[in-house]
Amino acid sequence: MKVKEVADLVGISVRTLHHYDAIGLLTPDGTTEAGYRLYSDDNLEMLQQILFFRELDFPLTKIKEMIHSPSFNRLEALELHRNMLFEKRSRLDNMIATIDKTMRHAKGEIQMTTKEKFEGFDFSRNPYEQEAHERWGNEAVDKANAKVGSMSKNEQEAMGKTMNGIYAQLAELRGGSPDSAEAQAAIKEWYELLNQMGPYSLEAFKGLGQMYMDDERFTQSIDRFGDGLAKFMRDAMAVYADTNRK
Fold first, then answer.
1. What is the pLDDT of residues 157-171, one digit of tens each?
2. Contact at 8 Å (CB) between 198 and 187?
3. Cα–Cα separations (whole angstroms), residue 126 to 121, 131, 217
4. Residue 125 has pLDDT above 60, yes or no
5. Neighbouring C-beta atoms of residue 44, cutoff 10 Å
6. How far apart are CA 62 and CA 234, in angstroms?
7. Which of 3, 92, 226, 242 holds its CA 20 to 30 A away from the CA of 209?
8. Check whether domain 139-244 has CATH 3.30.2350.10, yes or no
9. Whether 165 contacts 92, CB under 8 Å
10. Where is each HTH merR-type domain found (predicted)?
11. Which CATH number fits domain 74-136: 3.20.20.70, 1.10.1660.10, 1.20.1740.10, 1.10.260.40?
12. Which stretch of 100-104, 215-219, 228-232 has the lowest confidence by average pLDDT?
């Protein structure tokens, strides 16, 4: 199927499919002589997996990491999707019930306790999502998060100041080349800082840089220090990783 046919079938935009191809998430198996993308049945099955994960609010970088993992199993993933959707449906049913009660309470028909007003809200991590990360997730990022979580408040504040300082330094350099000596010196500081939180191989470091662009939450957070900083850091991290491989 051509890209427009897939887009119409699934109900997503052609631009979205082009983006998935550009970031290596879903690459069509073939092209026509004119250069148009051709999607195979295997491509469509993978697209279904991607959209299940998107429905469950997984970022594209995490989806790419999981579905391209050598240990990824499609049937296991489908079972996981099913369980997560049941969990999500249960939470939504509880929240709808709370909304209905709140409307009746506002009309004076019933009285709600303080506890009842917040039934259905659950901001804890979904255990099925945790299972997905454990099966197919990024071990380096998970270890880094755990390391930061074990720090004291003062240690976290000191780490945050150091990180912000490096962000600011790189923001001043972003108008130049990511392979300049100044940019590479600053990105080396970034690499060494990350390795204080958890072991990052050069390949993982390069992958993290790509995540800065693929995941809009990273992009928005980093670009607060200067427009285009996330892209500059991605490029500088890729240069550093490629240059320092033995």
1. 888 888 889 999 999
2. no
3. 12, 9, 20
4. no
5. 14
6. 17
7. 3
8. no
9. no
10. 1-70
11. 1.10.1660.10
12. 215-219
What is d(CA 71, CA 135) in angstroms, rounded to the nearest whole number?
8
CATH code for the structural domain at 3-55: 1.10.1660.10
- Distance between CA atoms of residues 103 and 109, nearest Å: 9
* pLDDT beyond 90 at 131: no
User: Percentages helix, strand, coil for the chain, rounded to the nearest 5?
Assistant: 70, 0, 25
- Average pLDDT, rounded, for the chain: 84
pLDDT band, very low/low/confident/very high, at 116 (cuts 50, 70, 90): confident
Are the C-beta atoms of 27 and 21 separated by less than 8 Å? yes
- For residues 62 and 210, the answer to whether their CB atoms sit within 8 Å is no
Three-state secondary structure call for residue 150: coil
Element (H, E) at 246: none
**Residue 174 structure tokens:** 């972003």
